[in-house]
Amino acid sequence: MDHYELAVKPGGQYEGLLKCKEEGLIDHIVFSSHQPGDQVEKVIASKKFEGVTMGLNILNYGYRKESAEQASAHGIGVVAMNPLSGGTIPSHEEALKFLAEEGETATEAAIRFNLACRDITITLIGFNHVEEIDQACALADGLELSDGDAYKRVQQRFGDSMKSICTSCGYCRVCPKGINVPGYMLFYNEKEMFKKTDAEMIEMVYGLEYWNYTQNHKVKSRDCIECKRCENECTQHLPIIERLKEIARWEAAGEDKVQV
């Protein structure tokens, strides 16, 4: 948000873009963001932009669902990047097979989910082989675009198949200290879903998933006061406080490595 405030201040970057638009040098002013959903919503509410690019996929959609819905309601285009979670989904097909319908892979389920989402205007899919282009086109050709319940079905599969996984419903966003609890719980999913070790999770403190979910929040997991408001709101009754303590240890270890 500091970057955003700097860009829109009088005489700043945004005013420069407006002049470029007036002179016909550009057609539209849009923004790309890795911010949490609530911060994206604030930028959208400013009505300064015509489109937004943000990471949206079958695993994190609940985390950014409200911002995508708000953008759509305001007539703002939503471009979804990282529809396969940066390659995480294709790399863990077996672990994520519960997301798929009968006869499809987890990767196909993820692509179909984004294409069917009514709040996503464009999905950016990276390809390594021609066959992957054919796969995406076949999914689009056979898609029921009226499917408005895709996310509900995904939540149901999370609940039925992996009880310890955060479904990113966002109800735990009630921390009096301002800890980004939903983001941290999505980060913790990396351990639960893919059985990553503590060493791997510490390494991930430097990674894109961690940065997307938690790094741009000044309040950290170690600031938890154990009031249990988040746990009281959690529909899955997850041990959030214990998970925050574990994440705090990973973050501390990561900070120690940086200092060394």
In brief, what are we looking at here?
This protein has helices spanning 2-8, 13-22, 37-45, 61-73, 88-91, 106-116, 130-141, 150-161, 181-194, 198-204, 208-215, 229-233, 240-259, and strands at residues 30-33, 51-55, 77-81, 122-123.
What topology does this entry show?
Elements: H1 2-8, H2 13-22, E1 30-33, H3 37-45, E2 51-55, H4 61-73, E3 77-81, H5 88-91, H6 106-116, E4 122-123, H7 130-141, H8 150-161, H9 181-194, H10 198-204, H11 208-215, H12 229-233, H13 240-259
Parallel strand pairs: 1-2, 2-3, 3-4
Helix pairs in contact: 3-4, 6-7, 9-11, 9-13, 10-13
Tell me about this structure.
- The chain is of the alpha/beta class.
- The protein folds into two domains: 2-160, Alpha-Beta Barrel (TIM Barrel), CATH 3.20.20.100; 165-259, no CATH class.
- The chain is built from 13 helices and four strands.
- It has helices spanning 2-8, 13-22, 37-45, 61-73, 88-91, 106-116, 130-141, 150-161, 181-194, 198-204, 208-215, 229-233, 240-259, and strands at 30-33, 51-55, 77-81, 122-123.
- Strands 1-2-3-4 form a four-stranded parallel beta sheet, with helices on one face.
